[in-house]
Design goal:
The complex is a heterodimer of chains A (314) and B (498). Chain A has 314 residues and is mostly helical. Chain A is built from 13 helices and four strands. Classes of the chains: A mainly alpha (314), B alpha/beta (498).
């Protein structure tokens, strides 16, 4: 399957190979790892990062970066939860909550996109700044963690649809979207913008719109990730998802997408996100003393990144 | 009949710099029209205004008789105007086909990219160049894997993929070899017969006279003449372009076989090179001749430690040396100036001073840089170059290509090099600046610097060198001196019939 208009071997090959290795190691360490319930619970843990990483990929492909995804997720969480609490119980509340949450995500993405695509501000500093603002808004809406969501929401999210765990359905839909987008001209425009910005302009591409679209996509995925997190925690938390920003960027890099832009794809980021989650898992089940776990996790992430770079240089 | 392009009184200011003060261009339908002028005369700026990349500060542009003011290349494309970009608009990490159809991808009814059609259309376009395109240019290959001439062909194909009615070819032949230029001209003629107008910008006057119907000449941001090619000679055009600059006198032979060589190269190989031996004495200018890409650049870059030379030996000042890195070369008194300024020389966005001082800092390994003590030294060097600049603190980008190249040579002068390696230093530089550069190079030789010069232009070697080592297939096939130092012998040796 060719996911991008390029002739080389896919960038996600390495991340997927590392993923397979970790699955094997994890399978040895964790009893019942391949059992349905463990797969489901692991996937529930990994899914938000994977989704955010998919969105982040599009921003990075266009040569930008989005540090605000964690803050967007927190904002979407509190907006969703507050809306649901205000509307009441039942499907109407869930629908209203989703709409309000995703709507606010799109607004955040548009703000980022307009500041960076139209006003040409530096993406890293800009999204660092907007992240603080989005967090502030989230705190203003819901100063303390709390509130509940309708039972139908979290029980569906934690449950099974047509014999398949809901989380797996969401992942499958995300993959389908990634494949869909990879075959649309948009993704090659994005890669052109990230690969050679003046060349893309000279080719007649509308840089503003393309970059804005990438930030909106990234925010939308952060929003969906927030809805997943909310389904998992069933509560509102203005400090949710703080590790998603750097986590998603690491996942994108692990997945073979160049942070300088123009090369890569979201399939790799999916593997990258799963990989990061699995590393945490492996360390936990390897029985390392608690105080060393973070250190070892950092070393493994670094080794994986360095390995990717070394292989890519050949 | 209305003209395809009619531009009148076009001006353009970039900040305080007046790039164009009175641009005028009239191109008829189905005409190949040359737009000529020295570097920095405003011809690229005028082209970019016509093609929507820049907006004019004032003036009128009529396309097919209709007044236009394109705000983006996309709008110009819609009106049938396509520009070939000198500084390549290709996306290196993407495939040939993706580049050619960038922004205009054929789609399936479902809105996906129609890869089959894109592939077929790309193959048709590649077919235009036929055999001359060389091996390895296929639709799915990444542009970064192509040779420079093939990239240029892709850029040309990309222009024609837009089915334009008006084409501006800005230095489109610069990287092409002779056969490719021939094929390209056939394409241009076929397009002319189909009613397509071409604006042809080139530094090669032979090409202009071979293909163009009429000529517009610009100088210092102004259109100074519009003539029919049949009515003028090349000399007339050169005079129009530069006003008063004459071609430099041929350098008198300075070769003195008695002098001890400062640099002796014996039997080196590596990369393209095979068993190259050469000796240069102080004050000598030795040319590296032959067809392009026969190992001339490889030798210069190898001597400077950019690539590794293999086997053989190097003697500098009578001592055996090994040069593994450019820093070794610098500390031994070698200096290297590349024609590829963007890739090899320029510190973009930095001041002229910083660009000048780069080599001094490497050579002298200063712990702290005291700008005050360096400025007088460098000002003196810069002054000796006749470089036009207002302040040393101006950004390097404010200088034209020719003046930038002088700065990059001056960068090394401040280190008092013993051997100067010049790797096609005049690439893309206008005639006026070229004359200054060679005057400078000769002056250096007179002061005892040994100079190894590679140039893709035969006349530069013949006019300036004491000897020419002719390369073919990575080795020196012959050395031309004295009576054999002429165009006839050089061409014969280059084509392997020495």
């Amino acid at each position: 399957m060719r996911l991008a208009l390029r002739s080389e071997r896919p960038a996600w090959l390495l991340a997927s190979a590392a993923f397979v290795v970790l699955v094997v190691v994890n399978g040895l360490l964790q009893p019942g790892f391949f059992g349905g319930s463990v797969v489901q619970s692991n996937l529930t843990t990994f899914l938000p990062l994977v989704l955010v990483a998919i969105g982040q990929t599009y921003v990075v492909l266009g040569g930008d970066i989005d540090l605000s995804v964690g803050a967007i997720a927190a904002l979407v969480n509190v907006v969703t939860v507050t809306t649901m609490a205000a509307v009441g119980d039942g499907p109407a509340a869930i629908a209203a909550g989703f709409a309000a949450g995703l709507g606010s995500a799109l607004v955040c993405g548009l703000v980022n996109g307009l500041l960076i695509g139209r006003l040409r501000l530096q993406p890293m500093v800009t999204t660092f700044g907007t992240a603080i603002i989005f967090s502030a808004v989230a705190l203003w809406i819901l100063p303390q963690a709390g509130l509940e969501v309708p039972e139908a929401y979290w029980s569906t999210y934690g449950g099974i649809i047509l014999g398949v765990p809901t989380v797996l359905v969401i992942l499958a839909l995300a993959v389908a979207f990634v494949v869909f987008l990879a075959r649309r001209p948009f993704q090659s425009w994005l890669m052109a913008v990230g690969g050679n910005r003046s060349g893309a302009f000279q080719s007649g591409l509308g840089l503003d719109r393309i970059r804005i679209s990438a930030f909106v996509l990234s925010a939308a995925f952060a929003g969906i990730a927030a809805l997943c997190l909310t389904g998992e925690t069933a509560t509102g938390d203005p400090l949710l998802g703080q590790s998603l920003g750097m986590g998603s960027i690491s996942a994108v890099a692990l997945g073979g997408t160049l942070l300088s832009g123009g090369v890569g794809g979201a399939i790799g980021s999916i593997f990258g996100g799963l990989l990061l989650g699995m590393i945490g898992n492996v360390i936990f089940f390897a029985g390392l003393p608690y105080e060393y776990q973070t250190l070892v996790q950092g070393l493994i992430v670094l080794a994986a990144l360095a390995g990717g770079v070394v292989v890519a240089r050949r | 009949m209305t003209s395809a392009i009619e531009a009148r009184d076009v001006t353009k200011k970039f900040g305080q710099v007046q790039a164009l003060s009175n641009g005028r261009l009239t191109v008829g339908r189905g005409e190949i029209h040359a737009l000529l002028g020295a570097n920095g005369c405003g011809k690229s700026t005028l082209s970019k205004i016509i093609a929507g990349t820049h907006a004019a500060t004032s003036g009128t542009v009529l396309i097919d008789g209709k007044s236009v003011a394109f705000s983006s290349p996309h709008e110009a494309e819609q009106a049938g105007v396509a520009l070939f970009y000198q500084e390549l608009s290709l996306i290196p990490q993407m495939s040939v086909e993706a580049n050619i159809f960038m922004g205009r991808e054929p789609r399936t009814p479902a809105g996906f990219i129609d890869r089959a059609r894109m592939r077929a259309d790309t193959e048709t376009l590649i077919g235009l160049f036929g055999e001359a395109i060389g091996s390895g240019l296929r639709p799915e290959v990444r542009v970064s894997d192509l040779a420079p001439n093939q990239r240029q062909i892709v850029e040309i194909l990309k222009v024609y993929a837009k089915s334009p009615r008006i084409v501006i070819m800005d230095e489109a032949t610069a990287a092409l070899d002779g056969r490719q230029v021939g094929v390209f001209f056939d394409i241009l003629r076929a397009k002319r017969d189909a009613g397509i107008s071409t604006v042809f910008i080139s530094h090669r006057l032979d090409e202009v006279f071979a293909i163009c119907d009429r000529i517009t000449v610009m100088r210092n941001g102004e259109t100074v003449a519009e003539v029919a090619t049949a009515d003028v000679t090349q000399e007339d055009v050169v005079r129009l372009m530069i006003g008063d600059i004459r071609r430099a006198e041929k350098r008198l032979g300075q070769s003195d076989p008695g002098r001890d060589p400062i640099l002796e190269i014996a039997h080196v190989g590596g990369g393209r090179l095979r068993d190259v031996s050469l000796a240069i004495a102080p004050g000598e200018i030795v040319g590296l001749g032959g067809l392009q890409g026969q190992g001339q650049s490889a030798l210069l870059r190898g001597l400077f430690g950019i690539h590794q030379l293999r086997g053989g030996s190097l003697r500098l000042d009578g001592q055996d040396v090994r040069i593994r890195r450019p820093s070794h070369a610098v500390s031994r008194g070698l200096a290297y100036v590349s024609g590829d300024r963007v890739a090899d020389s320029v510190l973009p966005g930095r001041s002229i001073f910083e660009n000048l001082v780069a080599a001094v800092l490497v050579r002298e390994r200063r712990f702290l840089v005291r700008v005050g003590s360096l400025v007088p030294r460098l000002t003196e060097v810069a002054a000796s170059l006749k470089t036009k600049y207002s302040r040393l603190s101006d950004a390097i980008g404010t200088l034209s290509g020719g003046n930038q190249q002088k700065v990059f040579i001056a960068r090394w002068l401040a280190t008092n090099p013993k051997v100067l390696l010049l790797d096609d230093p005049t690439k893309g530089i206008d005639l006026g600046a070229k004359a200054d550069l060679f005057a400078l190079i000769r002056e250096l030789a007179d002061k005892g610097v040994a100079i190894l010069l590679y140039s893709s232009e035969e006349s530069e070697l013949l006019d300036n060198c004491d000897r020419i080592a002719v390369f073919n297939g990575g080795s020196v096939v012959t050395e031309l001196t004295g009576p054999t130092l002429d165009s006839f012998h050089l061409t014969r040796a280059a084509f392997g019939d020495a």
